[in-house]
Amino acid sequence: MQIAVVLLNYNGAKWLKKFLPVVIERSKNACIYVIDNGSQDESLTYLGSFAEIEVIELDRNYGYAGGYNRGLKKVKEELAVLLNTDIEPAENWLQPLIKFMNGHPDYAACQPKILSYERKSYFEYAGAAGGMLDRYGIPFCRGRIFSTVEEDRGQYDQYVDIFWASGAALCIRVKDFFEVGAFDERFVAHQEEIDLCWRFWLRGKKVGFIPDSIVYHVGGGTLPYNSPRKVYLNIRNNLLMLSKNLPQREQKKIFFIKWCIDMLIFLMYVFQGKFVHATQIIKARKDARKMKKFSLSYLNSEHYPDMVFRKSVLWLYFIKRKKFFYQMTD
Fold it and tell me: Whole-angstrom Cα distance, residue 330 to residue 328?
């Protein structure tokens, strides 16, 4: 089965110069695409020096979701890895992904092990060893829970199902991607991959973690962690995702709990003197209420996918003081 490696770029010439040659060298027999989101830096000039890649030029910046939705329509391969431009893949990183997806047609997506580029023996914040979702809709990762990042000691070196695969290195079946409605472009960026994977699960497809495939992620290369904009997008998009996918009977309770959690975060930022961050929480909640619910016929489900983590990650992490995922499953 043919595979494409698809990078989305917006004014990221410095990352292309640093990592694109490595991606090409270590992605033998794959078709390399770069979707350019209307860059105004020297990205297109630099990309013109590579005859072996296909550049898909968009007229403006459509964000992560919109950029990939448009660019993937021009990808001919059955499988595609959506790869951040600030990632260095390890040697032979593609083969385990291809082998797994070829042998498991019931899987719509998977992700490699994502380690830190700066500290290569540690997991990286955005994806680690696969994403999970707790009972209140809070996303976290095996190997990274809130600010606690684990060292990779082989503790997650098993092929397992995960709730969501990281958008930093997301391997998908292109057909399944479009059949569930692609990315929701209202998200712009952040948690759109969680929303996508939730829709995969509701449609009877699976998402997996492939430990034999390894990539090294700089992290924060496109939008710094804990920036006000990131805080806004994460809170707004999480509320939007829950309104779309939660069973109706669960929504009232969970939205109340989410309100309590967001207000605690608001107060934390106020006490820290981060007033811009605090105002972004209020704005995110207000904007989320304005967005209409999005539904498709096969999403009218009254059950959680089996992969939802049935406990509260906040309770386990802050009250029970369990900092690592393997402790939470004891």
Answer: 6
Phi first, then psi: give them for residue 329, nearest 5 degrees: -100, 0
d(CA 13, CA 25): 18
Alpha-carbon distance of 320 to 108, in angstroms, equals 35
Can you tell me the distance from the alpha carbon of 98 to that of 78, in angstroms, rounded to the nearest whole number? 11
pLDDT digits (tens, 9 = 90+) for 17-67: 999 999 999 999 999 999 999 999 999 999 999 999 999 999 999 999 999
Task: Give the type of residue at 44.
Answer: L
The residue to which tokens 């297109």 are assigned: 44
Residue with structure tokens 């951040």? 84
Residue 274 CA to residue 158 CA, distance in Å, equals 40
Q: What is the pTM of this model?
A: 0.94
3-state DSSP of the chain = CCEEEEEEECCCHHHHHHHHHHHHHCCCCCEEEEEECCCCCCHHHHHCCCCCEEEEECCCCCHHHHHHHHHHHHCCCCEEEEECCCEEECCCCHHHHHHHHHHCCCEEEEEEEEEECCCCCEECCCCCCCEEEECCCCEEECCEECCEECECCCCCCCCEECCECCCCEEEEEHHHHHHCCCCCHHHCCCCHHHHHHHHHHHCCCEEEEEEEEEEEECCCCCCCCCCHHHHHHHHHHHHHHHHHHCCHHHHHHHHHHHHHHHHHHHHHHHHCCCHHHHHHHHHHHHHHHHCCCCCCHHHCCCCCCCCCECCCHHHHHHHCCCCCHHHHCC
